[in-house]
Design goal:
heterodimer; A: 67 residues; alpha+beta; two-stranded antiparallel ribbon; 3 helices; 42% helix; 16% strand; B: 232 residues; seven-stranded parallel β-sheet; 10 helices; 18% strand
């Protein structure tokens, strides 16, 4: 994220890893609402991990419930 | 919909893995780019991998002609055999002919070719759509000027209200990305929300539906079909 959006971008997006399930290789990442698009774009450009966005929600309960 | 997926035809495991990743990303239809000389049985086998994961496939061919004559020859030869025909523009002659030709569905440009870009001249002539292979371009060519070039091309499309298709151009399972990620990448290069939304949904679907109708039995031309009488 710092590579594509710089230090200011990183501060604006403010990403945090909330949960990680190693068995399913799934993670929940939180960020500021205005930075969600930039977070997705930055994650799409990670070559090694190849993350795919499954869904987005305003709450963790909403993410888990939609499953 | 991802209109540009390039599976490794010699590796079954890679094809299966790619299909699983596309299904996880939420795609229902993908455009498979396969080599032109591939056997029909092999095509059927690859399509089956995708259908097992609930993904419909349409066949796509990427033409890379060196000249105007070669382009016209390839179009005559391959138009009827594929659902989507795309042209990789390597020089000005090819790009201007491909832009004007109604048989070409999408144009795309190689980011490593510094002499050829999507400019106002091509935009004025373009009948089809311009494709941005965002993931493959940005991952395989992370040069400083790649983003600048994409941003300039996005600005040209906004000026001319060009139809834009956002694709991944993924040639391996690790390059598959979800539609929302393609949307986000399109926004980051300066495309509008409407362009990005249409680029991952409406425009690729309309291209596919139009060509499937053209290739269906009984189709003569737009608005004209052969209808056989029903025997009672």
């Amino acid at each position: 994220m710092r590579k594509h959006f710089g230090d200011f971008g990183l501060a604006r997006i403010d990403p945090k890893l909330v949960r990680f399930n190693a068995r399913k290789a799934e993670a929940i990442v939180a960020c500021r609402r205005n930075g969600a698009e930039d977070l997705e774009a930055a994650m799409a450009l990670i070559p090694e991990a190849a993350p795919i966005t499954i869904r987005m929600s305003g709450t963790i309960k909403g993410l888990v419930k939609k499953r | 919909m991802d209109l540009h997926v390039i599976p490794n035809v010699s590796d079954d495991h890679s094809c299966r893995r790619m299909a699983e990743q596309l299904a996880l990303a939420g795609y229902s239809i993908v455009g498979l780019t396969l080599p032109t000389g591939i056997l029909v049985d092999r095509i059927r086998e690859i399509k089956r991998h995708f259908q097992e994961n609930g993904i419909e496939t349409v066949l796509r061919v990427d033409l890379s002609p060196g000249s105007r004559h070669e382009l016209l020859r390839l179009l005559r030869r391959f138009r009827r055999s594929y659902d989507i025909v795309s042209v990789k523009c390597s020089n000005q002659n090819v790009s201007s002919v491909a832009a004007r030709d109604g048989r070409v569905d999408v144009l795309f440009f190689d980011s490593r070719n510094h002499r050829m870009r999507f400019n106002h001249t091509v935009a004025n002539l373009l009948q089809g759509a311009l494709e941005f292979n965002l993931v493959s371009t940005l991952l395989t060519n992370p040069a400083d000027d790649t983003l600048a070039r994409l941003t300039n091309e996005a600005r040209v499309t906004q000026h001319h209200k060009t139809k834009v298709v956002l694709s991944s151009g993924s040639s391996s399972p690790s390059m598959v990305r979800s539609p929302s990620q393609l949307f986000a990448l399109g926004r980051s290069i300066g495309l509008s929300k409407v362009q990005c939304r249409d680029g991952v949904s409406t425009i690729p679907c309309s291209i596919v539906n139009r060509n499937l109708e053209r290739r269906s039995d009984g189709y003569v031309e737009e608005g004209v079909r052969i209808v056989l009488p029903r025997v009672v």
